[in-house]
Amino acid sequence: MKLEGELRTALAGEITPKFLATLDAEGRPNCVPVISITPYDDEHLVFGEFMMNKTRRNLAACDTVGIAVVTETLDMWSLKGTFLGFETTGERVEEIDRSPLLRYNAYTSARAAGLIRVEVVSEKRVMGKLSVLGTFLRAWPKLRAIKRAADARAVMPARVEEKFGRLSAVRVAAYRDGDGYPHAFGFMAGFAAGPSRLVLTDRAFGAQCDGLAVGAPMAVCILTMDPIAYQVKGTYAGQCHGVGVLEVEECYSASPPLLGERLDQPV
């Protein structure tokens, strides 16, 4: 599968939001920002491995991956690929180490370079900013009913709920697709309905989750302009009052310095 044109330019962006989705041995998704993902050639991606313990464990158990990329103008692509392994020396490691993202960041020092062979590339999807605003405004009146029925367990701390309320933040959802690959896709309208539920709604989310079974494990990652990232995991509860609902069961930090730290209290 060729990486070319606008997609290749987006993937080569040094600060363009890119996300890597993996699956554990039970098929449950994990989705985190990996901004270092970049084209290596026409058919492969390379990325830096640093502070990604859960992702590394998943890759050891399952070599299928999903990638989502979202540009500043809200152009979005989803990719699927096969993880080919890590290298600790050589040309690919040197290329990652030379990137400005890693060279000048106090938190990031790549321990290895990972290689992905791209298998599937989606068509470009475009989400207009006015469309995002309209989706937020239409969904807000439905929050009260959805929140009232939510579980009382406080899974998301207040600071995480606040981030999901931001209009200018990128959200990426991931689930195990029917082909066995994690499907990762960007969407813009997803916000908290209390500390244990997410409302998931916009044209991109609806199209990408059409037919997804109720009860399917799902991960959602949010990346703000700060940049600060969080990941929540849970089960897809289907449609409620015309919007998708995620029952949130786990919450994690997905950015330094607390990358991977669990923020909820395990039951």
Structural category: alpha+beta
Number of helices: 8
The span between the termini is 43 Å
* Approximate helicity band: 10-25%
**Rounded to an integer, what's the Rg over CA atoms?**
18 Å
> Any idea what the shape is?
globular
Structure description:
The chain is globular. The chain has helices spanning 5-12, 53-61, 91-98, 100-103, 129-139, 143-148, 158-164, 203-208, and strands spanning 18-23, 29-33, 38-39, 44-49, 64-70, 75-87, 112-121, 125-126, 169-176, 182-187, 190-192, 197-200, 217-224, 229-240, 243-253. It is of the alpha+beta class and 267 residues long. The chain is built from eight helices and 15 strands. The strands form two sheets. Strands 1, 2, 3, 4, 5, 6, 7 and 8 form an eight-stranded antiparallel β-sheet that branches. It has a seven-stranded antiparallel β-sheet with strand order 10-9-13-14-15-12-11.
Keywords:
267 residues, alpha+beta, 8-stranded antiparallel β-sheet, 8 helices
Topology:
Layout: H1 5-12, E1 18-23, E2 29-33, E3 38-39, E4 44-49, H2 53-61, E5 64-70, E6 75-87, H3 91-98, H4 100-103, E7 112-121, E8 125-126, H5 129-139, H6 143-148, H7 158-164, E9 169-176, E10 182-187, E11 190-192, E12 197-200, H8 203-208, E13 217-224, E14 229-240, E15 243-253
Antiparallel strand pairs: 1-2, 1-5, 3-4, 4-7, 5-6, 6-7, 6-8, 9-10, 9-13, 11-12, 12-15, 13-14, 14-15
Produce a short descriptive summary:
The protein is of the alpha+beta class and 267 residues long.
